């Protein structure tokens, strides 16, 4: 049983292929990390899953439905995904509470009272209960990114896509964001993430995928990829970042 199946996905930009026949299966509760040099295609792959990019060939199946079918309801697909990017994309003119309840209320039609109850519960769970009425610029970068993750969680996604969520943070703030991701794993959340934090990647991932020039060159459990990769290019990459 897979939650997400990526089969033979190609993506071209201006005649240049940045994804070259990607195959990947993600099972429920699995944490999959994408690693590889800058420009290897990690973000593009996540953007294809989220339908921010259309694929040029291949299929992506989410919970049994082909989401690369042109007739697909894009909004309906995105409602099953939670996405957090590197840059904090909170709405600056809204409080933390309003940021979190916006999608549940407007997209999922959850009544305000219930949406706020659930938002408060999430804020408490992640140590941010006292920030509900703050505006994003009153929070640290780490707090903003935690709110962005909470906001993504508030719609009860089936799959979380996390793209370099700690890259814009001061090192001291990285830890609190990684902790939240660790806790998500404990609750069984299915995730695909890209990260430069190799220690964290090794620790949290069930499967690590090494992308090289748009090719998913190698994948396996972290013990295997980090200690005894099959491909010389994987070894070279890890040597350059560890
Ligand atoms: P990564 O996330 O691994 O750093 P990306 O997926 O961002 O890599 O980029 C893969 C390649 O695709 C890069 O060469 C990048 O320049 C190119 N690329 C990404 N998005 C676009 C775009 N919208 N238009 C043109 N080229 C793009
Ligand atoms: Mg990227």
Q: What does this entry show, briefly?
A:
With 242 residues, this protein is an alpha/beta fold. It is built from nine helices and ten strands.
Strand-and-helix sequence, N→C? Answer: EEEHEEHEHHHEHEHEEHH
- Strand count: 10
Q: Can you count the helices?
A: 9
Kindly report the spatial arrangement of strands forming the biggest sheet.
Answer: 6-7-8-3-9-10
Overall outline: globular
Spans where pLDDT lies below 50 across 5 or more residues? none
Average of the residue pLDDT scores? 95
Strand content: 15-25%
Major beta-sheet overview: 6 strands, mixed
Alpha-beta content class: alpha/beta
First and last CA, distance: 34 Å
Report the bound ligands by name, code or SMILES: adenosine-5'-diphosphate, magnesium ion
Rg: 18 Å
Helix content: 25-40%
Please render the helix and strand layout as text.
Elements lengths: L3 E10 L2 E11 L4 E5 L6 H8 L7 E6 L2 E2 L7 H5 L2 E4 L11 H11 L5 H14 L15 H13 L5 E5 L7 H16 L4 E4 L3 H7 L2 E6 L2 E6 L1 H6 L4 H10 L1
Parallel strand pairs: 3-8, 3-9, 6-7, 7-8
Antiparallel strand pairs: 1-2, 1-4, 4-5, 9-10
Helix pairs in contact: 3-4, 3-5, 5-6
The site of adenosine-5'-diphosphate has 10 residues, from helix 1.
Description of the structure:
- 37% of the residues lie in helices and 24% in strands.
- It has nine helices and ten strands.
- It has helices at 42-49, 74-78, 96-106, 112-125, 141-153, 171-186, 198-204, 222-227, 232-241; strands at residues 4-13, 16-26, 31-35, 57-62, 65-66, 81-84, 159-163, 191-194, 207-212, 215-220.
- The strands form two sheets. It has a six-stranded mixed β-sheet with strand order 6-7-8-3-9-10, with helices on both faces.
- Helix 3 (96-106) runs parallel beside helix 5.
- The longest helix has 16 residues, at 171-186.
- The protein is globular and about 50 Å long.
- The mean pLDDT is 95.
- Bound molecules: adenosine-5'-diphosphate and magnesium ion.
- Magnesium ion (MG) binds next to helix 1.
């Amino acid at each position: 049983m897979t939650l997400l199946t990526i089969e033979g996905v190609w993506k071209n930009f201006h005649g240049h292929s940045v994804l070259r026949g990607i195959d990947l299966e993600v099972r429920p509760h699995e944490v999959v990390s994408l690693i590889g040099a800058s420009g290897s295609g990690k973000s593009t792959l996540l953007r294809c899953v989220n339908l921010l990019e259309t694929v040029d060939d291949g299929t992506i199946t989410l919970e049994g439905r082909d989401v690369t079918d042109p007739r697909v309801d894009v909004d309906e697909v995105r409602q099953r995904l939670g996405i957090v990017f590197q840059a904090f994309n909170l709405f600056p003119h809204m409080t933390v509470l309003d940021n979190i309840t916006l999608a549940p209320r407007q997209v999922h039609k959850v009544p305000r009272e219930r949406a706020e109850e659930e938002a408060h519960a999430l804020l408490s769970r992640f140590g941010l209960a006292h920030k509900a009425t703050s505006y994003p610029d009153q929070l640290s970068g780490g707090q903003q990114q935690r709110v962005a993750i909470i906001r993504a969680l508030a719609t009860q996604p089936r799959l979380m896509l996390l793209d370099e969520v700690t890259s814009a943070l001061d090192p001291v703030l990285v830890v609190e964001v990684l902790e939240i991701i660790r806790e998500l794993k404990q609750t069984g959340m299915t995730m695909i993430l890209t990260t430069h934090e190799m220690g964290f990647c090794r620790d949290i991932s069930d499967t690590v995928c090494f992308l090289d020039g748009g090719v998913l060159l190698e994948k396996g459990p972290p013990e295997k990829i980090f200690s005894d990769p099959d491909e010389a290019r994987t070894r070279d990459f890890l040597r350059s970042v560890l």
